[in-house]
Description:
Blueprint: H1 20-41, E1 62-67, E2 73-75, E3 78-80, H2 82-94, E4 100-105, H3 111-124, E5 129-132
Parallel strand pairs: 1-4, 4-5
Antiparallel strand pairs: 1-2, 2-3
Amino acid sequence: MAFGGDLNDGDDMVSEINMTPLVDVMLVLLIIFIITVPVITHSVKLDLPRAENTPNIVKPETVNLSVTVDGSVFWNDEKLEPQQLEQRLQEAAAREPQPEIYIRGDRKVEYENIAKVMASVQRSGLLKLGFVTEPGN
């Protein structure tokens, strides 16, 4: 079955590649690239400032409040009277950043003494309060 004219002379196959559609596709692609490349590479030249990105890590100070069996309170190994404790806690709450308060209680201390120290810390406005314990065996 042949398309076109009367080619019944012989059943010769045409072995040549028709280049016209291939050339048309290549020309269309070339035009697309010629139009899009200047748009893609267009940029404004700026002299941007340079800066280093180093975080400023400010570690808050830690205060160890120790409560002994007899109800005595120690501020980092310094014994305090109840009035001194309130005053020091107020000063610590006014600092920026606020220090972290760690309460260490003797194993046999009454809960009332620990609760008084916790209430003092809360009244002063300090936000970070923790307990220090020893791991059990």
